[in-house]
Specification:
The structure is a homotrimer.
Chain A: H1 8-15, E1 18-23, H2 33-39, H3 57-66, H4 78-88, H5 90-100, E2 103-109, H6 120-127, E3 130-136, H7 137-147, H8 151-166, E4 171-174, H9 176-179, H10 191-202, H11 212-229, E5 233-237, H12 255-261, E6 268-272, H13 277-286, E7 290-292, H14 295-301, H15 306-312, H16 332-354, H17 360-378
Parallel strand pairs in A: 1-2, 2-3, 3-4, 4-5, 5-6, 6-7
Helix pairs in contact in A: 1-16, 1-17, 3-16, 7-8, 8-10, 8-11, 14-16, 15-16
GO molecular function (chains A, B, C): hydrolase activity
Protein name (chains A, B, C): TIM-barrel fold metal-dependent hydrolase
Domain Amidohydrolase-related (chains A, B, C): 211-381
Chain lengths: 381, 381, 381
């Protein structure tokens, strides 16, 4: 699976079990081609007439790396791949792909949970791994907004529910990048402004929350909880779907907020980041509480992903890099995340060893820290 | 011409005729050194005293790749190159370089047309290729502004003239990035606000249009026309000359406008994009109607261009990538655009084949689609 | 020291003495491990518990490239390295590392001067090199603010002091990126607005200047001085410490100011730039008075730095690139800046020679210009 020769210690470190610190449940049901195509593209729409989402780096990667896990030759046609997927059934496909990833612990963002998706516990069982929960802030807020009668209850319930959910979780997650962009005012909003905004919100609670005041209130409430329980907060940054405005998803735009959190000691974990992963690595290099990984970008850039990891390694301190697959809906994402993390790291480490920059012991240590060691420390697994 | 060994099918696909979906007319007259230097730099000024615009990646590329087309050794001195150019005469030089590019169809932006430049038809004749027109919106607007007596005529004439010109063209082009930046308000301006702005405009119609209201009106008028005639709209983004503010030329800044166009089905073609080509590839991956190429960036980064194409390939769906040379003034730009497109794609495809990521059939198909297939489909050639 | 075989002329040009056009004084005293760690990270804080700033690309580079200069094996443990440093004493360590860098002239930003740092003259003596001063604008302003009794004196004294200091210097430097970001209003502020702002400022003169009006006034005063004396103005852009907001440090954000300076002929030198070095190279390509280097980024990205230089070379004209180490506090920065500049340029030039893009004479000339020739011309050394 590794694209280069490496000293044994480095090879072993790269092939050791990974902690996937950010993923979602995969679908338990058999999928039509149309359903499968929708789940392998962030476009959330079918490919234009006459084209297919298989004609992407990710599509090619599924044919290359997932086909053999289903006993097929590499590069089989999409129809053959999907036929075999159907033949084996979703349960077997999920077990094979999740286990092929060599992941020892899944940290599952449950914000997108649905009956047809594996639960956190099931992800662990199917993958032969441990599984813990990451609580998505905006999902909690939606639940509260739909049930709170008045603004004061909204505020109280939000704090209580977050604390209760956090008690069973290993981290929190914010998608504020999607809702108002990362260039938000970093200060904690006043109680008066939150009450006023909550009153507006409760008049139409089924709408998706986009009010910056309430989004900031949610975040600062989460900061209190995270601080109490020593939990990290994950942030979606960079690459996402069409709901996102990429020009407002650069993690450097939240420098003020990161600065405000520094004295509180709450770890900030930057997810995905692409194409702002250099900015993210910079933040992780200068702020002691910032961590970073390129998650989703590895899977979607696939055959072109090695450069992205190499660019991340330009600045990221060895103790700040994490691994995630961000798999969602299909287990292919999990396997490919692991494949491209290992291949990309292998290429990057080999280049540094071959040029004499790092010795093998350094390289092995970096591989271990990024693959699992850092996540165990940050999430206290 | 290709820098690596490739399976025959891939090699053939790369060497097949290209559709250059965005270029300008080249000069028909013989050029002095000063004139030539101005045309090979986006600075629009002479190089500082004691320096030369030949001391750039593009200058070196001319000496390397264009010299042999004029029967010279690679790497000849600039004076020798220009002497030979003079000796052959502009007509012969243009014919040789345009034909050496292996372009089968030129789509010519006629917005910068001048008597000393080849017309669209002449570009085709000299290049031994088909040639079609791309209508530059801001040029039409300028013509209308200089002749319309009052605001209502301005609005009516603009729509009529755009429709008339579009009837003979294969696409439209906007340079709104130059005029007010891509972070413009994506909504269609109200009729009242347009009338008011048009009245201001008509008081000084020879000025270059920079009013965001009229620029947006122009764009939305073009959207109506494009929709009626199923034409794509090209947008200058990224790298340009000193009139541009690069920090307002990131295509991700126009996400709101792209989103607004999605239900209308009007294709959006992002030109150049550098250094925001990863953002552009992202947009093409998540929005079904967005297409992308790195045009001008290939020619100007020359010997360093392969990485840029490779970065584009990280995310761009195979059915979304196009080729253009953006040649302007000198035919060298056309030849070099084709050279670096083919060399860069060759390197990128070879790497993916060699690492087992893609098979040769995939690679050949990608080369064909990016080189001509996608352009034929999008522009309905 | 070079990672690839190169024609003799290119090799000689790369190994020739460098002009380090931007650095700071290094510490004259022996440093504890804690002190040393603080000086090798832009975080300005200790590494998180259980981690070390040696676990960074820069830390690994010190063990790799500086250890042999202190007679140690490459890759020794941090404790061994620091023990040897202590054993030799700061004076000997500084002499060895500064001289190993092969720098023939240091241009020293004296804005951070402190008694425990080598002065400009001492940097020259220890390094066996010439040494000249770069005047930091914000330091001059701080001195004036703390002594001027009223606003008019403030304005007069600022102009006089800048002129006096500039008379003994080879350049000026602005850190406006740190103070209000590079997206500042490019126009010269009115005298009235400056007087009003100066009055506010003088009521609390020990505060660090952050008022955009006074920062712009400072800059335009510097422009007058620079124009009179034909001095370049350096700008911190991109990568810096936690005081910086990276999203406001993109040099393209100061396009308006650069445009305003073009007719005045004042050279603008963009420092560091990472991760906006492509934007910086673009500015240097289109504006005749803009120069660029990646300074600090080379040292901190260390084993990953070659790509950054290669990306800069995508667009930078050969007569626009400079070299700096930005060393500060520890002489390791100077040696590593030189090492990675030479290694990165070697790799980039070798690739262009091997692919036939440039000939050896071109490559040697580029190496010479970037290493020292351009700096001699721009700073009139």
């Amino acid at each position: 699976m590794l694209p280069v020769d490496l000293p044994d210690a480095v090879r072993d470190a790269l092939l050791a079990p990974l902690v996937d610190h950010h993923c979602h449940g995969v679908r338990r049901d058999d999928l039509s081609r149309a359903q499968f195509e929708l789940l392998i593209s962030e476009s959330r729409t079918p490919a234009p007439p006459g084209t297919t989402h298989f004609d992407t780096p990710l599509g090619a990667a599924i044919r290359r790396w997932c086909a053999p896990v289903l006993d097929l030759e590499p590069h089989v046609a999409p129809a053959v791949y999907l036929g075999r997927r159907q033949e084996l059934g979703a349960g077997e496909v999920n077990r094979r792909l999740l286990q092929a990833s060599g992941v020892v612990a899944f940290l599952v963002d449950t914000g997108l949970e649905a009956p047809e998706q594996l639960s956190t516990a099931e992800m662990g069982r199917h993958g032969g791994a441990a599984a813990d929960e990451i609580v998505r802030l905006e999902q909690i807020e939606q639940d509260i907004a739909e049930t709170a009668p008045v603004a004061v209850d909204y505020m109280d319930s939000l704090g209580e529910e977050l604390a209760a959910r956090a008690a069973r979780a290993v981290g929190l997650k914010s998608i504020i990048a999607y809702r108002c962009g990362l260039d938000f005012d970093p200060s904690r909003p006043s109680r008066g402004s939150v009450i006023a905004a909550a009153n507006r919100r409760l008049s139409d609670p089924r709408e998706r929350l986009v009010d910056p005041i309430l989004l900031r209130h949610l975040l600062w409430t989460a900061v209190d909880v995270a601080r109490d329980r020593a939990l990290p907060i994950q942030f979606h940054t960079g690459y996402g779907d069409t709901d996102l405005d990429l020009s407002r998803a650069d993690p450097a735009q939240m420098t003020g907020f990161i600065r405000a959190l520094q004295p509180l000691g709450v770890p900030v974990v930057l997810l995905h980041c692409y194409p702002f992963h250099r900015q993210a690595a910079y933040l992780s290099a200068v702020f002691p509480h910032v961590y970073v990984d390129v998650g989703l970008a590895l899977t979607h850039t696939a055959g072109g992903s090695a450069r992205i990891l190499d660019e991340l390694l330009e600045l990221v301190p060895f103790h700040k890099q994490l691994f995630s697959s961000d798999c969602y809906g299909v287990a292919e994402g999990c396997h490919l995340g692991a494949v491209y993390f290992r291949r990309g790291m292998a290429a990057a480490l080999a280049r540094r060893i071959d040029s004499g920059e790092w010795n093998a012991a350094d390289a092995a240590r970096v591989a271990h820290m990024a693959g699992s060691g850092n996540a165990r420390r940050v999430y206290r697994l």
